[in-house]
Amino acid sequence: MSIPKNEFIPDEPDQLPPARRRRAHRLLTPLNDDERSAAVDRLAHRSSPSLDFFIFSLFSAIIINAGLLLDQPGIVLLGALTAPLMAPLVGVALGTVIGSARFFFRSLSGLLVGCALVFGVGAAAGLVIQTWYPASLDMAYQQAQINWINFSVLAFGAVLTTLLLVQPGRSAGAVSVALTYGLFLPLSVAAIGLTSGLPYLWPDGLVVFAIHLAWGVLLSALTLVLLSFRPLTIFGYTLSGAIALLGIVLAIGISGAGAVIGGQVALPTMTPTATSTVTPTLTPSAPPG
User: Fold this and answer.
1) CB atoms within 10 A of CB 96
2) What is the CB neighbour count within 10 angstroms for residue 173?
3) Within 10 A of 263 (CB to CB), how many other CB atoms are there?
4) Which of 130, 223, 238, 280 has the fewest Cβ atoms within 10 angstroms?
5) Residues 188, 119: contact at Cβ < 8 Å?
6) Rounded to 5 degrees, what are φ and ψ at 53?
7) Which residues, including other chains, have CB under 8 Å from residue 209's CB and lie 6 or more apart?
8) Angle of helix 176-196 relative to helix 101-131, nearest 10 degrees?
9) If 0-12 CB within 10 Å is exposed, 13-18 middle and 19+ buried, where does residue 41 land?
10) With 0-12 CB in 10 A as exposed, 13-18 as middle and 19+ as buried, what is 257?
11) DSSP per residue, 188-241
């Protein structure tokens, strides 16, 4: 993607004039055309999917699925920590905001390829369950349900990852773990359920993944708008409106109305509990006198 520039602005913050250096660190005041163009180019470069993104997505998926099968949160967290920076999600939001169809679809396709690798590893883990059934899959079932704590963590990760990627010289690797946790886990769970045949994992996990992905992109796009990024073409306004509408529809789904009608998909499932029953006992009767 090439953005026309009228003036070169260095990426290194030390090379910026003092006033622009302060604005680059805040990015809360309106940007002029030159500053916006430089910021867009810098963010587009940082959020483009790379080979490392695909390699580490695969490596992370292997560890995450091992943790799900063993029902060990520590192993799952290790897998999330080894995941790549979820910059392509911010790239999708950037393509939405600036109205670049080419960059939008390039970032989205890169993100979906990484997710496809995660799904493939989860499908292989589901086949393992057919020959070796783990003692417990409590964590997997939890990730296939709408969880407001996970949803809040995802929102925090989407906003903060976007903020740090916009800032020159700042690393967003640590907070990006929240995005990995909110996207890769339910996607892995859905794949496990698809190939293992276990109930309440497929398509529940896929529904949770879709909701998290749409809201992550929406929150990232809103963050960019607040940072003075604006749609440059009619495509940007149209796509931004479509993403916002999708977020509203998914919000209705999160409220539970759609899921109840659709058969309790991605909602907590009722587990049978043992109930005590009164059994009649024989009482001795007095012998006839």
Assistant:
1) 31
2) 14
3) 7
4) 280
5) yes
6) -60, -45
7) 115, 183, 186, 187, 190
8) 50
9) middle
10) exposed
11) HHHHHHHHH--TTTTTHHHHHHHHHHHHHHHHHHHHHHHTT----SHHHHHHHH
Asked if 198 and 137 touch (Cβ cutoff 8 Å), the reply is yes
Report the mean per-residue pLDDT for the chain: 77
pLDDT tens digit sequence for 208-242: 998 899 889 889 988 988 887 766 555 555 555 56
The band of 18, judged by pLDDT with boundaries at 50, 70 and 90, is: low
256 Ramachandran zone, left/alpha/beta (phi>0; psi -120 to 50) = left
**Is 207 in contact with 196 (CB distance < 8 Å)?**
no
Q: What are the backbone dihedrals phi and psi of residue 103, each rounded to the nearest 5 degrees, phi first?
A: -70, -35
Of the pLDDT bands very low, low, confident and very high (cuts 50, 70, 90), residue 103 is confident
Inter-residue contact 190 to 204 (CB < 8 Å): yes
DSSP code, position 63? H
Res 43 pLDDT > 50: yes
142 pLDDT above the threshold of 70: yes
What is the pLDDT averaged over residues 189-194? 95
pLDDT at 149 > cutoff 70: yes
> Is the pTM for the entire model greater than 0.85?
no
Percent with pLDDT over 90 in the chain = 40
Give, in order, the Cα–Cα distances in Å from 117 to each of 32, 34, 59, 79, 96.
40, 39, 9, 14, 24
What is the Cα–Cα distance from 271 to 196, expressed in whole angstroms?
A: 20
Per-position b or e across 220-256, b if 16+ CB within 10 A of its CB: bbbbbeebbbebbeebbeebbeebeebbeebeebbee
Amino acid at 70: L
**CA 263 and chain centroid, separation:** 24
